[in-house]
Amino acid sequence: MTTHRPEGLSDVFAEPTEAPAPTSTVPASLPALGFVGWLRWAWRQLTSMRVALLLLMLLAVAAVPGTVWPQRAQDAARVATYIAEHPTAGPWLDRLGFFDVYSSVWFSAIYILLFVSLVGCILPRTKVHLAGVRGRPPRAPRRFARFPAQGSGSVEASPERAAQDAVGVLRAGWRWLPFVPTYRVDARDEGGGTWSVSAERGYLRETGNLLFHLALVGLLISVATGQMLHYRGQAIVVQGRGFANAQVDYDTFEQGTAFSPESLVPFTLRLDEFESRFDPVTLQSRDFTAHVTLTNPGEDPVAETIKVNHPLTAGGAKVYLQGNGYAPELTVRDASGQVAFSGPTPFLPQDEVYTSRGVVKVPDVSGDQEQIGLVGYLLPTVDVRETAFGPAYASVHPQPDDPALVLAVWRGNLGLDTGVPQNVYELDESRMTQLMDADDSPVTLVVRPGETVDLPDGMGTLTFDGLPRYVALDLRHDPALPFVLVFALLAFAGLATSLFAPRRRLWLRFAPGTGGQDPRTVVTAAGLARGDDVGLQPELDRVLAQLATRTDDRPPVAPRGPTSGEGTP
């Protein structure tokens, strides 16, 4: 007696009755991938979501060195100082690009790989999504009992008329957007007088997801374009003086790799007056206004104002009011009576009453005289108090009601010829000596506007000629900023759509009633959602409730457009 055993079915618990067939001793081998196969494998790995997320995280990590070490594009002086102070590590960091992180080869490689990964991920998904949008909703299943949302009822209209009404109800738009259909609908004749309607919505979820990724690509392109074509500079403009939009007139200037300074629009800006307003009790600042005269090429001068958070647009750049202060106008004569220094010197405010610190460097002295350095404070409204250690000077108001300069005097080598850039607001004291009185206390000069004082040891004289105001302007030009804003808003809209757009499918079947003087059409319905959807059953009940009001005496609801393959994705 033989037992039939289907092919491919074996009982692991049965004892074998026959000797097993001899197996080959040759080991199995997989076909070689080849060069094209390896390229295809690498492309699939690069365009996978896992690698895209890894590259995004790697890009964030690669940006960290740009916040740890000074960057040459922002502050070349700090980079030079860092390399000089770290003779071992500094040159190696420079070779590896840690002082130019955002334009380095390794950062650019991560950036480009992330861009390629996103594009390679988006293109095939877009093709599949477009094919799904153009397709027809799936046919109604034969049995509705297994679906989470179900409903039933009856209508007075015939099955065909009820199906047409269902198409109109399902394709009706929102109240606030009535011309956009909510479902893609397809009506089918199943034979025997039975009609079915299939409706589908929720492709907007995938559309939003693709929009989000496309917006990320747009952001990457915009940021890269902005980094190549932007420029940014800071300039201090003293009251009564002007500024020309040329690279040599900037105090600091940075530019993108593809930006040419020759493309700067040659406009001029003159500071006519600066107004400041402070709270009379707390002395907190209330308003700053810079009155300027703007002259564009080939145009007449125009009076403009610049306020905090209200920049001026000039030459395609935004001109921001970054800061303000006082620039004492000084004249220093050396021991021979020659003018060694003359002009305004900006002092930096240190507190709310504009106690300002500044440095005056006088390198151009005649003969063998040592160079002069003056370090001290400007007090807009000075208050002098006698203490056990001598007079103490302080400012009591930010407005220049009774200004005075309190300076210490240094002489020696200012170190301006060492080749290392210096901060104009700091004095290199390594080669300088501070002048002292007979009692070994530092020499202190107190001078008011219009006064002239003698420098100690016959070094010359100092004259306080006036006290004009100055403004610190920040000029920025980035042609990619509007695109960054647009793509950021698109990314937000796409992300919100992909998170909140419900994915639903509804099916309705209209079968002729049986018997009776007034046979009615029997309606059965079911719904299915991708994920949890608390609105699925109420949506199905709404459709059935609207269909219950339709009769054969009323004209059917005309669907908007064809009944197959159209509608909101």
Automatic annotation (TrEMBL):
InterPro entries: Cyt_c_bgen_Ccs1/CcsB/ResB, ResB-like_domain. It is a multi-pass membrane protein. Its main location: membrane. Residues 1-23, 547-569 are annotated as: Disordered. Residues 49-541 form the ResB-like domain. Keywords: Cytochrome c-type biogenesis, Membrane, Transmembrane, Transmembrane helix. It is found in: Membrane. The chain crosses the membrane at residues 20-39, 51-69, 101-123, 210-229, 480-501. It holds the Pfam family ResB. This is Cytochrome c biogenesis protein ResB.
